[in-house]
Request: fold
Amino acid sequence: MYMDFISIFSIPLGTFGTTEIVVIVILALLLFGGKKIPELMRGLGTGLKEFKKASEEDEEEKESESEVKKEKK
Reply:
């Protein structure tokens, strides 16, 4: 019963072929235009950089907290 529920609502995710990639690129060009796509990619890159920087800072903070706890013991 459980497997039937999953199979009904799951989306099969496979690999993208050449045709699918070409269709996606054409749709993106039609929707956003040639001038807007570089701006969108620049914004995406900036967001990814900020996310990576924040996650690295969080890891460093957790490591320093664990070191302080070890020193107190």
The chain has a mean pLDDT of 79. The radius of gyration is 22 Å.
